[in-house]
Amino acid sequence: MKKICVITGTRAEYGLLYWLVKGIEDDPGLELQIVVTGMHLSTEFGLTFKEIEEDGFKIDKKVEMLLSADTPSSVAKSTGLGMIGFADAFNELQPDIVLINGDRFEVFAAAFSAFTARIPIGHIHGGETTEGAFDEAIRHSITKMAWWHFVAAEEYRNRVIQLGEDPKRVHLVGGMGVDCINNTVLLSKTKLEKSIGFKFGNKNLLVTYHPATLEKNTSKHSFQALLDVLDKLKDIKLIFTEPNADTEGRIIKQMIADFVSVHRDRTISFASMGRLNYLSTLQFVDAVVGNSSSGLTEAPTFKIGTINIGDRQKGRLEAYSVIDCEPNLKAINKAIEKLYSKDFQEKLVKVQNPYGDGRAAEKIIDILNNQPHPKELKKEFYNL
Which terminus of the chain has a lower count of CB atoms within 10 Å, N or C? Predict the structure, then answer.
C-alpha cells in the first residue's frame, strides 16, 4: 500500500485538495497521510486545521513555521523553520509520495525537504504563471524537484515540458477548483445567510485582495484605490475575505477592518469562510473582485464576472468573464461599469471555465495507483 502524504498550508489550498484527500482516503490501495502547516496553525488566520478535523480527516503531523510578521525576512525565516519541521515529519512518517499543490513558500519548504529525503513529489498546478508574485519562481522551482506533474491546462503542460520535464510524467488533469464545485452540495441563500450572518442585497461583490509580492510597498496604495471605489458604491453589499500570510498582508488586513467598521450596514469580513460557505457565496455575488486565483479558476463556473486588479495573476489562463484592470481609481471604476453593463451581463450566460471538466482528483488517484514508482529520482533534462 502506497503512503501518500498530502501537504496543506492554507484554507484555500485545503478547499482545492478536499476531494483529492477524500479520494485517497477511500482508495484501498493508498494510505493517506496529512501534514498541516502555515496559516492552518495560526490563530490570526482562523486555526483552520480544525476544519480539516471536522471533515473527519486525521492530521498526522503539524509543522509550525509562521513567524508573527509579514516582512520579507520573516517569510524567508519561516521557510527555513518549515524545512526543519518537514524534515522531521518525513523522517517519522516515511511516505512513499508527497503531494504538493501550487506555489506558496510553505509548500516550497515541504518540497525541498521531501526532495533531499529522496521522496518522489507529485506537484499539482505547475506550469502556471503569476508575474506579480514570487509564487512564480517557487512554482517553477517545485517543478524541477517533482517527479509527477498534474497540470490544469495544455498550455501549462507545455510550459512544464519547456522546463525540461519528460512529457510522460506531465499529466493534464484539469483544475482542482472545478472538482470542488462539481462535487459539493452548495447551500441555499437562506441557509448561507444564516451560516455567515450576512444578508445579501440586490447587488453583491466578493472581495479578495492579496499583496503583489514582487512589488515593493504597493499594497497600501493599490488596495486603497479599490476601497475608494467601493466606498462610493452605496447600493452594493460587500463580502471581504482576508489576505494570506504574505509580505504586507497585515497592511491589507487592517485596511479591511477599518473599512468594515465604517460600513457595517453593507459589509462583512472573514479570516476564513470555509470551503462550503465560500463556494456557496459564489452563487449569489455578481463578481469576484481583487487579485485572487479563485476569480480565474472558480468564478467562471458560476457564470459570474471577475475584476482582476494588477499583475498578481498576470499570465494565467482567463475566461472572457475576467476583466483585467490596473490598480488605480480610474481603471477600477471603469471595470465596475463594464461588469454591470447589459452587454457584459448577457455574455456571462455562455462563459466556459478553461480549467477542465471537474475530474482532476479522480485522474490523479488513477495515476498514483498505476504509474511505476521510481527506483531513483535522477531525471534527464528533456530538450524540445
Answer: C
- Virtual CA dihedral for 60, 63, 68, 72, nearest 10 degrees? -130
C-beta separation of 90 from 100 below 8 A: no
Q: Say if residue 70 is exposed, middle or buried (CB neighbours under 10 Å; 0-12, 13-18, 19+).
A: buried
Q: How far is CA 193 from the centre of its chain?
A: 24
Burial class (CB in 10 A: 0-12, 13-18, 19+), 99: buried
Cell numbers linked to 167:
512529457
H/E segment holding residue 208:
strand 203-208
Read off the pTM: 0.89
Compute and round to an integer the Cα radius of gyration of the chain: 20
Give buried/exposed letters for 328-363 (b at 16+ CB in 10 A, else e): beebbbebbeebeeeebeeebeebebbbbebbbbbb
Reported as a single tens digit per residue, the pLDDT across 6-55 is 999 988 899 899 999 999 999 999 999 999 999 899 887 788 899 999 99
Check pLDDT > 90 for residue 191. Answer: yes
- Pairing mode of beta strands 97-101, 61-63: unpaired
Length of the chain equals: 384
Identity at 209, one-letter amino acid code: Y
CA 208 to each of CA 270, 272, 273: distance values in angstroms, whole numbers, following the listed order: 10, 11, 12
Residue 227 has pLDDT above 80, yes or no: yes
Q: Positive or negative, the Cα torsion across 192, 345, 178, 35?
A: negative
CB 299 within 8 A of CB 72: no
**Which cell numbers in the block locate residue 307?**
475584476
Grid cell at residue 101 = 499543490
Query: Is residue 213's pLDDT more than 80?
Result: no
Side chain identity at 224, as an amino acid letter? Q
| Rounded Cα gap, residues 220 and 260, in angstroms | 16
Alpha helices (H) in 27-134, listed in sequence order: 49-54, 72-93, 105-116
Residue with cell 477548483: 177
Residue 328, C-alpha cell as written in the block? 488605480
- Which structural domains are found in the chain, ordered by start? 2-175+357-370 (3.40.50.2000), 189-348 (3.40.50.2000)
Taking 90 as the threshold, does the pLDDT of residue 91 lie above it? Answer: yes
Helix, strand, coil % over all residues of the chain, rounded to 5? 45, 15, 40
